[in-house]
Structure formats: structure tokens, C-alpha cells
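Q: Start with the shorter request: fold the first protein.
A: Done. Sequence, then structure:
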Amino acid sequence: MSNSNIGYQEDPENGEGIIRARTTKQIRSWEIPRTMKALEVLNIELGRIEFTGIYILFEGKNKVYIGEAKSIYIRLKTHMS
């Protein structure tokens, strides 16, 4: 899905189930399966994702948790364990 009018680009899901989306500026989003393998793939791909951010966890289509973390990677690892 792409809409150049608002600077939004979404890439198709890859083999690990990760969907990447980004805007033309600082906002990026990823939809990843709730598995350590998918988190590790994303971490390697981005060259370490130890940065601050806001995240939303879903179970099915229901939003179950919204959080903020100094290190998204470390915080998501704790949610998965």
C-alpha cells in the first residue's frame, strides 16, 4: 500500500511475518508476529533497535496494551517471555 500524497509506504509481509511501514519523516511502524525469531530478525535488519518509542500489543484484533520504553527491543523481549 502506498500513498505518496501523505508520504506513507507499507511493504508487503516478509517470510517472518514482519510488515514494515514508514512515513517521510521520523515515524516508523512495524507489525511483527509475537515471536522471538521475528523480533531478532527485525533487530538484526535495523542494526539494533535499542531506541525509545511507543508500542501497541494486540491479541487478534483487540488492542491489549500500550506502552512506552527507553529500549523497544529490551521491552518487547520481556513481553514475549
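Q: Next, the second protein, separately.
A: Sequence, then structure:
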Amino acid sequence: MNAQIRTLKADIKADLKAIAEIYAALKRYPLQPSRDEELIVIAYYLHNLYCAFESIFRHVAEVFGEQIPERASWHAELLHRMTLDIEGSRPRLLSDEAYDCLDELRRFRHLFRSAYRLHLDAERLALVRRKAHALEQIYMADVERFLAFLDSLLQAERGGNDRA
């Protein structure tokens, strides 16, 4: 389990780097874009932002043996699972506030991936961008708590090995 936890921490840190890069890219665009091309690029970054968070969730679920059913709603189920304290396994990864922001990003991601026309609703995009901004203010506290939990698992395992 020690190697899995160390790998999970490395995966999370790599995803956090990608998340920071996406947030930096989003900041290069105006809050009220005037051109369709800007809307499309912002939508692309918001799509990628959710995908980067979902990568963390998939890694966590995999390491802790959580089966996510292969059905249409698996993205929503995976996100919801990250709000659960799973007794004897792991604490919740996400606060309710982070979940709310990420759920909006998840719904937008689905819409963006399913869109076949280039016209995007600027108001909807602005709402999603506000949720992404709110998430930026809070997600690290959630992730840092979870990383501290992973560190405690590593320390407990090290302590158990010292006693053996």
C-alpha cells in the first residue's frame, strides 16, 4: 500500500500542477469576452479544468478500491463519491462548497463535449467561470487535508514496519 499511496500523491501533485496552469491560462482572457473565439477558448479551458480534477478523483477511487459503475452517470457518481467519508478507508476529499462548484463544471463539461455548434451561451459560460473562480479559492484546502491524510497513512505504515 505504501507504494500506491506515494504514487497517488505524485499523481495528485501532477494534476494540481495542470490545474494551476489552466487557471493561469484562464486569467489571460477577459471576464466578459467580446469575441466568439474567446468564448470557445475559455470553454475549452473550463472543460480541461474539470478533466484535471476528475483525474484526481479517478486516482483516489482506484487506490482505495472504489468501483465506479460503467454507466452514463459515472462522472456524477465519481464526483459525489469524493464528498463521502468512507469509514475505515478514507475521509472525504471535497467540501460541499467545492462539490457545488465542481458539479457545475462537470455539467458544463458534458455540454461542451456534446456541442456540435460553435455558438456558446455567454451567460452560461460566465456562470461556470464564476464557479471555477470560487473553486480556485477553496480547492487547495480540501486537497491539502487529503494529502495530510495520505501522509498519516504513510507514517502509520512506517511505524508498523519499525515495530515488525
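Q: Describe the second briefly.
A: The chain has a mean pLDDT of 92. The radius of gyration is 18 Å.
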